[in-house]
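[User] I have long wanted to understand how a fold can be written as tokens. Those tokens are not coordinates but codes from a learned vocabulary of shapes. Could you go through the record with me and say what the backbone is doing? Thank you; the sequence and its tokens follow:
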Amino acid sequence: MGRELKRVPLDFNWPLETIWYGYQVSLCRENCYDCRIFAKTKGIPLLAYDCPDFEILIGPPRGDGYQLWMTTNEGSPISPVFATLDELCEWCEENATIFAYKKADKEEWRQMLEADFVHYQMGNITFI
């Protein structure tokens, strides 16, 4: 499943379903447009060869907003940013799955996101 709650700025504008560059280990050592965009977004100065230093993986900026992220890849946002957890849970009820095609209602989403444990239970098996 690989879903988790991230607290990001309310105006966070990273494209949905696009891997956050801070979670990628970059071997780029050339003048790369994506590297420069990432550095500008994060406020990281560029090194002499125009790429940020990727020795440490960097998460998205922290803020007051609520956003659902997929973690089955390196990490990417899969929901818009919401001002409240309730708004995110309402969005998730209609638009997000917890496992394959399985959905949850907004109260189930709230419980899972507050516990930082999005999962699907089938009998005595828990899918995480």
Summary: Strands lie at 3-8, 65-70, 76-77, 120-122, 125-127. The first strand starts at residue 3 and ends at 8. Residues 1-12+62-128 form one domain. The first helix runs from residue 33 to 42.
